[in-house]
Amino acid sequence: MSTIETADATSTPTRSRGVQIAKNVGWVAAFIAFLTFFTLAKLPDDRIGGLLLGKASEALSATGGRVELTAERTRISLLLLGRIRFEGLTVRTTSSSGAPASVRWDEARLSPSLLDLLLARFGGTINLLGKDGSSLSLAFWSTRGGKFSASVKAEKAELGTAGLGLLPILSGIDATLPLTGTIDLSGEASQPASLSGRIQLNIGKTELPAQRVSGFPLPGIRFDDGEIRATFAQGSAKIESFRLGKMERETDDLRGTATGDIALARSWDSSQLNLKARVRFSESILKSLFLLDALLGPGKQPDGSYSIQLTGPLDAPQMQPGGSP
Predict the structure, then answer these.
(1) Which of 207, 188, 201 is closest to 239 using CA atoms?
(2) On the chain, which terminus has fewer CB atoms closer than 10 Å, C or N?
(3) What stretches of the chain adopt beta strand conformation (E)?
């Protein structure tokens, strides 16, 4: 290869990078220009918010299932690239059971990230405020190739019906589930083995009223606290601590602990479980779900708890009786 050809080959990536940066700067400038135009033209914030939520509803519905977003009021600020605040934001959709579901947040804030736009990424922060004071924030960025980084912070975030309402709208389960803590993960969304980060969550007093889930009757369940501690690194998810309730506390209907790891593969279905768990149920739960004792009986311990071991692929785990704790 001649000197001229070598120089051209070397300079091509540089030119491509320069063109990409120029395009990103152009998009940022266009975004600011349009936002400024709307503001100077005194187009009502509520009208702009309605247009944005309409487009967001179309995008979310395209992935499967109807999703409708509406807000009682919209506020837009030009400071630091712009912040959009939706007051009284309502999400209407269909739960996993097929029933209509909706949730209303007192406020939702969306702040795009100028730095991520310059780096050819989509990113920013989203903050949700529930009617009970629950707060859930997400700082993220993602690329077209599937790489992402996400940091979730929960401040006494009640995910149930009385708070943010995420649990019933996503799973169709009615419950009170308060969380406090953080989730920090990065990697490629389509490849679990690439994930790295940490989960540190504390669970508050949780209550599930008696209900039917996917047609199956579920008795009322409650426990006072719990925690989740896990680390993702080098193709493995290590479950350092998973606890619901306390074994010695008789007032908890559900008591359980688990430790172990998940060998992460190229897909979630082929990832391998290796977990040891110990669970204990109240008498009312055992009477309502009498098959539990027959199913878990081989691992029953002298204190009435059940020791089990979960192994095999994540999509078809095998459950075996565990040894004495």
Answers:
(1) 201
(2) N
(3) 68-77, 83-94, 100-112, 122-129, 135-142, 147-158, 178-188, 191-203, 206-208, 211-213, 216-218, 221-223, 226-233, 236-244, 254-263, 272-281, 306-313, 318-321
Distance CA 65, CA 67 (A): 6
Alpha-carbon distance of 129 to 316, in angstroms, equals 37
- What angle is formed at CA 169 by the lines to CA 271 and CA 167, rounded to 5 degrees? 60
Whether the predicted model's global pTM rises above the 0.85 cut: no
CA distances from 290 to 9, 81, 152, 256, 287 (A): 71, 59, 39, 18, 5
Instruction: Spell 250-265 as b/e; 16+ CB within 10 A means b.
Output: eebbbbbbbbbbbbbb
- Interval 27-39: pLDDT, tens: 665 665 666 555 5
Question: Is 100 within 8 Å of 10 (Cβ atoms)?
Answer: no
> If you compute the radius of gyration of the chain from its CA atoms, what whole number of angstroms results?
24
**Burial class for 202, CB neighbours closer than 10 Å (0-12, 13-18, 19+):** middle
The residue type of 321 is: P
HSE-up of 130 (CA within 13 Å, CB side)? 21
Q: Give, in degrees to the nearest 5, the angle at Cα 151 between 146 and 153.
A: 150
d(CA 160, CA 178): 8
Residue type, 160: G
- Report pLDDT for 29: 59
What six digits make up the tokens of 149?
Answer: 């980084």
